[in-house]
Every structure is written in C-alpha cells, then in structure tokens.
Design a protein that fits this description.
Strand content: under 5%
Structural class: mainly alpha
Low-confidence stretches: 102-106
Radius of gyration: 23 Å
Number of strands: 0
Shape: elongated
Helix content: 40-55%
Oligomer: single chain
Order of helices and strands: HH
Mean pLDDT: 82
Distance between the termini: 76 Å
Amino acid sequence: MDEPVREVRSPRLRIEADREAVERDLSRLVLTLVELVRQLVERQSVRRMEEGNLSDEQVEVLGLTLMRLEEAMAELCDRFGLSPSDLNLDLGPLGTLLPEEDRRDR
C-alpha cells in the first residue's frame, strides 16, 4: 500500500514591526511623494509665470494655492513628528531626492 504523502510546512516567517514606526515610515514616504509633486508644480508654475503664460488672476490663484499647500505640508509634518529635512530621502550615489536649495526647516 502506498503511504499518504505528508506535506512539510516550513514555519511562517513573521516580521515583528513596531506599529508606530511603520506608521511613521509610511507617513514619511507619502509626505515625501506629496512634497516632490508640490515642488514640481511650484517650479512649473514659476516657469509659466516668467514666460507670461498666465493672467494676473491665474497668478494670484496659483500663488494662494501653493501657499496653502505649503502650509498644509507643514501641518502634516508636525502631526507626524517629521521635519521637512526628514522628507529628503538619500538615494545613495544619486544624492538626495529633493534639491538642496528647496529644503526648508519650518
């Protein structure tokens, strides 16, 4: 008679992670991406203003929007205990994610 084949299961690997550390790191990553997009939009807006592609009203609305977004980013950084410099990820040989001149400690 054939014996039934037994399945050998390896023990599951579990990563023990501190919930608060994971939440903070995830928040840092999300805020870093938002800050990167914010800076790109700001640069694009400045470029369009300098080229004269925007009306005075559009410049005003864009300026207010960018100021509010910057304030919201500062509030979110405060809420998660992060400084703006925490959002500038080190990419090793490529340097930092955000340009040096745009790092602001608020």
